[in-house]
Design brief:
The protein is mainly beta. It has 3 helices and 18 strands. It has an 18-stranded mixed sheet that branches. Catalyzes the stereoinversion of LL-2,6-diaminopimelate (L,L-DAP) to meso-diaminopimelate (meso-DAP), a precursor of L-lysine and an essential component of the bacterial peptidoglycan. It catalyses: (2S,6S)-2,6-diaminopimelate = meso-2,6-diaminopimelate. Keywords: Amino-acid biosynthesis, Cytoplasm, Isomerase, Lysine biosynthesis.
């Protein structure tokens, strides 16, 4: 099986080229590929398949040729992955699929069709405007942290830390507790604290995230969009630019009257072949 490895601010993925949709990708195979000691290693699997050839995306085939079939590292499916879309687009660009310079490259996901603009260093994706819709809490090591529920095509809970809690000291080796009545399919939980001013932006936020299906990751693109939306709301702003620093680097979230753009680096680091029979089962 041929694969490519890529990452966006440390959020890393195993990319499988399967345009005709012939690969029998199962939860067990996805988890085995993402195993960091006995497989290739990654936060998830990105299968590159034509939308017309996948039952989850056929309805989008008239709007987007390519479908990002995204699997978390535990083998579960996810509706959206902001960094995944950017790495997926970088891969398409590497094989000559670039889209329009003006309107970008449309990509079908389980959350709908998004579009990406490819630059030499960064890729920006129109993620749609995040919807902040409720309040809830997360629990972590005895702390009960209030948060904002945000829909970015997938579910998020953004929790601002009190001043006496150090973001870097949080133990995210275990999943935070959350309200399963509000998030029956699970939730990505972001923990945030303000950062120093950054030139060219309205706000600067530091973030760590525990992703459903992948545990703590170095970055979460849709999570950065959720964090940006909550930060602007709390600052009394309807639109603006937010620098979101994650352990893997910096993402820039730009929210205007109609949508949200997520921008940052996306790189391909390796191409190779994996022996499927040798993977853990």
């Amino acid at each position: 099986m041929q694969f490519t490895k890529g990452h966006g601010t440390g959020n890393d993925f195993v990319i499988l080229d399967d345009p005709e949709g012939r690969l029998r990708l199962t939860p067990e195979l996805a988890a085995a590929l993402c195993d960091r000691r006995r497989g290739i290693g990654g936060d998830g699997v990105l299968r590159v398949v034509r939308a017309a050839n996948h039952p989850a995306a056929a309805r989008y085939a008239d709007r987007a040729e390519w479908f990002m079939d995204y699997w978390n590292s535990d083998g579960s499916l996810a509706e959206m992955c902001g960094n995944g879309v950017r790495v997926f687009t970088r891969y398409l660009s590497s094989i000559g699929v670039t889209g329009s310079p003006d309107t970008g490259l449309p990509v079908a996901t389980r959350a709908g069709v998004v579009r990406a603009l490819v630059g030499p260093d960064e890729i920006a994706v129109d993620m749609g405007r995040p919807r902040v819709y409720d309040t809830s809490t997360a629990t972590l090591d005895g702390l009960v942290l209030p948060g904002a529920a945000v829909d970015c095509g997938n579910p998020h809970l953004v929790c601002a830390l009190p001043p006496d809690v150090d973001l870097a000291a949080l133990d995210l080796t275990r999943a935070p507790g959350f309200d399963r009545a509000l998030f029956p399919a699970g939730v990505n939980v972001e923990f945030v604290t303000p950062g120093e001013p950054v030139a060219g932006t309205d706000l600067h936020t530091l973030m760590r995230v525990y992703e459903r299906g992948s545990a703590e990751t170095l970055s979460c693109g849709s999570g950065a969009c959720a964090v940006g939306a909550v930060a602007l709301r709390d600052a009394g702003l309807d639109t603006g630019v937010v620098a979101v620093d994650v352990p893997g680097g910096r993402l820039t979230v730009t929210i205007d009257e109609s949508t949200c753009w997520l921008a940052g680096p996306a790189v391909l680091v390796a191409h190779g072949e994996v022996d499927e029979d040798a993977l853990p089962r």
